[in-house]
Each structure stands twice: as structure tokens, then as C-alpha cells.
Amino acid sequence: xxxxxxxxxxxxxxxxxxxxxxxxxxxxxxxxxxxxxxxxxxxxxxxxxxxxxxxxxxxxxxxxxxxxxxxxxxxxxxxxxxxxxxxxxxxxxxxxxxxxxxxxxxxxxxxxxxxxxxxxxxxxxxxxxxxxxxxxx
Length: 137
What we know:
Largest sheet: 3 strands, antiparallel
Helix content: 40-55%
Number of helices: 5
């Protein structure tokens, strides 16, 4: 967190915590927004009280999250087989996310393709006019 790193860098003695006002639970967001607008505090990265709108995870955090999700998927025994009809090659991935990244689509597209194939309501079994997807559970 931004403030945590700043405290470590500058030391606790350069920061203080103050109670600006006591208010009811019902009015807390309105008062928080009032003080955000009034004081424009340096360490409040988000500008709307009670909302994380505008928050961006770092690339490092996103990479750790993806790695963790891929590990969870692998533990579930979930593999994705992708047949490339242009090269006639088959690749097996440990997760829908890995398969999607390899062929340039979203993981939900892979899962949706599986559902469509199971229901038989596809004009073509090819994804991106090239790949045949098989999920191995």
C-alpha cells in the first residue's frame, strides 16, 4: 500500500492519526466524501468514499494473482486441449486462462465454447476459425 511504504520510508513520527468528527453509521460515507473533497489528502488514491472505482492493481500484483489462479485451476485437475487446425498440432494447458492466453482470447470464451459444443448449437466447432477446444475434467 502506498501509505504503508511511505510510513516505512519516512518513519512513523512524520505521520499522525486524528479523529476529525464523530458521526452516525448512516452518515459516514457522506462525511468521508466531504473530507475527501475538502482536504484532498495526498494518501487517498481513491476519490469517491466507499468506492474502489479507479483503483489499479500493479502489474506485479496482477501477475501474482494470475499465478495463484492458475495453480488453483491446476489443482482442480482442469486441463484444456487445443487443436490448431492450421498446423494440425495439439497443445495441452493446465487452465482455461493459459489456453486463452496462448490463442489470444479470454478464458470465458474458452469455457463458453465448451458449453456451446456440449449443447450442439454451433455452426462451426472452430474457435477463431482455427482452434478446436476440448476441456479435460
